[in-house]
Amino acid sequence: MWRSLRGAGAVSRRGTAVPGGRCCRRRSHVWDWHQALASAAGLRGGNAGAHRTCATVTMPEVSTDHLDEQQVQLLAEMCILIDENDHKIGADTKKNCHLNENIDKGLLHRAFSVFLFNTENKLLLQQRSSAKITFPDCFTNTCCSHPLSHPLELEENNAIGVRRAAQRRLKAELGIPMEQVTPEEIQYLTRIHYKAKSDGIWGEHEIDYILFVQKDVSLNPDPNEIQSHCYVTQKELKQLLDKASRDEVKITPWFKLIAETFLFKWWDNLHNLNKFIDHEKIHRM
């Protein structure tokens, strides 16, 4: 049964996106990712991070006055900028990373998707709140977010920084106590690279780390992040995907891609996932 959080004060404000043609422009000191991407391409897989430069570049100005205040505050978080081979090239705000105008110029950031199963082999899904700036009201996997440009989440050995970020966001979104899911209990399988527009202003362009957990946990979701959640069987998820194909419900594009390609074979092998670990390949979706 889907557990709805509606009526819990999930949304303070939301409106229609400001048309792109009405945007003014500002100057901002951020990593010059245009130059860094060009340098990374020339290195062909070398140390792209060594070619980072800090410069004054033009970024689009988009009004957020009509958006949820709590979600707007999160737009100031600093995401990790990467090239197409997942090498760090700098950092920029969550806001700039999710503007289609920047995405169309090649801006790419690091992300993760958590798939949490209980001991009955059921997958925990969530429905994103109406307050979310990208893909509001969409059904998706357990937790989807970004590691931040912070020393603990930048550490790359066996994706420990990404796994720490996943622990943090499981707590923030679903209220799962951090001691219930430690980074060591989160299994990193592989990565996917995808791009998708949410509307005319906002979108996603990510290299997404796929993370699996199997454990019974306590839940106390934040209604500003999640409007409902449910554990589902494979049959129930297939029914949900079928409804999405008929436009009866909305699902996030990354979840759709993963469900259509990899998810069910991974799900069939929850106790033998090591054979699917591939930390070398980035699946271009």
What is the global morphology?
globular
Percent helix: 10-25%
* Integer-rounded radius of gyration: 19 Å
Structural class: alpha+beta
> Could you describe the largest sheet, including whether it forms a barrel?
5 strands, mixed
Low-pLDDT stretches: 7-57
- The SSE order reads EEHEHEEHHEEEEHHEEEHHHE
Instruction: Give the strand order of the largest sheet, numbering strands 1, 2, ... along the chain.
Output: 9-6-11-10-13
How large is the count of helical segments?
A: 9
Number of strands: 13
Query: How much strand?
Result: 25-35%
Notes on the structure:
With 285 residues, this protein is an alpha+beta fold. It contains 9 helices and 13 strands. The protein has helices at 33-43, 69-74, 94-97, 100-103, 151-154, 160-174, 234-245, 253-261, 263-267; strands at 3-4, 25-31, 54-60, 78-82, 88-93, 109-117, 123-128, 139-140, 143-145, 187-197, 203-214, 226-232, 282-284. The strands form 4 sheets. A 5-stranded mixed beta sheet has the order 9-6-11-10-13, covered by helices on one side. A 4-stranded antiparallel beta sheet has the order 1-12-7-8. Strands 2-3 form a two-stranded antiparallel ribbon. The two termini are 31 Å apart. Mean pLDDT is 84; it is low at 7-57.
Question: What's this, in brief?
Answer:
This protein is α+β, with helices and mostly antiparallel strands. Helix content is 25%, strand content 28%. The protein has nine helices and 13 strands.
